[in-house]
Amino acid sequence: MNPILIIVLVISLGLLLVPTLWIVIIKFLKVLSRKLKPSIFVATGHLVGRKKRGFVSIIGLVSIYAISASSCHVITVLSVMGGFGDDLKQKILGMKAHIIIDSKEGLLNDENRILKIVESIPEVEGAYPYIEEELMVRSSLNISGGVLRGIDTTRASKVMKLGETIIEGKLEYLDHPEKIIKEVFKHSANFLSPIGAIGEVEGEKTKNAKTKTSKESEKSFEKKEIVINRKNTSVQEESKGENSGINDRQSGEELLPAVVIGREMSKNLGAFVGDEIKLISPLGDMGPMGPIPKIRMFRLGAIFFSGMFEYDAKNIYTTLESARSFLGIPEGVTGIEIRIKKPNDAEKISRIIKKRLSSLPASTNLRVRHWKELNRSLFSALLLEKIGMFLMLSLTILIASFSIISTLVMLVTEKTQEISVLKTLGAHNGMIMRIFQFQGFLLGFVGTLVGTGLGILLCWLIKHFGVPINPEVHYIDKLPVKMEPVEITLVAISSLVMCTLITLYPAKIAGKQQIIEGLKKR
Known about the structure:
With 522 residues, the chain is an alpha+beta fold. The chain is 53% helix and 17% strand. It folds into two domains: 3-92 and 378-519, no CATH class; 124-215 and 255-340, no CATH class. The chain contains 21 helices and twelve strands.
């Protein structure tokens, strides 16, 4: 069943129960108010719909619906925004380290000693050195800009979740580029198989297509020559077992270092696993005509999808040794990335690291930064956007609360005689004001209670059933939701405060009512 339809049905059922809830609360308060102040007893009696007062009670229900809808709206929007923010945070922490140590100027030369100090801290899960350089990437079809990151794959697996984001190829190809040719063979074999043999493709041309078994496809494929990376490579039958297929490098295939790129860069370059791509670094040797860029061929070993466009479009990963060889950096690293057990303690752990590194000779040139500091502008913008959205949506609660004024003004007009009688019996202006203030507060309270409950229910339904969205646009397949108790409480309190303050005007009118005006109508 469609999750959106389920959500609509549940919320509609909840709204239909509002009148019943309203009557139950009024009846309960009317019984309870006999033991409390007279003003509460009178206030609850006015809100029960009877004959002539039926229209006023309907207006009261409309006020409750308006306040509940606006409160539910604010809670849902803030929770969805919180979900997007939390999803972004998890993606950043998955692809980037919690703490980074780098040098203010130049490279970090004492990385082994720094790693030893950092890994001795109990809160640290792992750390790895890296080399980073901006460069150009070129394929046979297109060219793009990127950031090359040379990583220690053994250490990096404890810090970043790159292996979990691989969607094509394997991360191990960075250390074993000779295995990529086997992947290219499989990819080419599947590519050359008849369309009808690949899955169940719907369409007029494929419905009646004759499918082949995998063995038949392999036999027909082994008789042909395939082209790997635009180089003719004859594929011969191998003996069955571990060495069947293409084993190591084929004749004419150069063993190139492997790289891993993001899905967006792969689309832009038109490159697949096994393709050769050219990395061009502008920081090359000096020639007679000026700087000569460094150019080297690499083989694409894997493609990752992090869920963040910026990372998928720019980041290029290779081994630390390959980056050193290509960039001409025999010693030193750009920095060290660290992962800790509790990301929210990054600020405290970074201070501990700074203190322990202060004993090093080059400590004055070291810079220790945590993920909150590195992404301060991004998360500050998200927080500012959330605050702005809360203030703007709170206006809907304020506008909805104006319906309470209409209800109370109509009650004041209708109850002119009762007000005069109460004043004749000794009720003072303050008591009259409290009667109508309590009525307004009660309308706001029930509306806020219903709205908060529906908001929490709606967020739970969205999180449980999932509302599908276009992953190509939003980089996520379902609408994320994260409910914050502080935000929900703030919305509820704001709604109650606005509904209470809005009752002052009609209550003041009722308090100033003259006795003679009501008695004239009797």
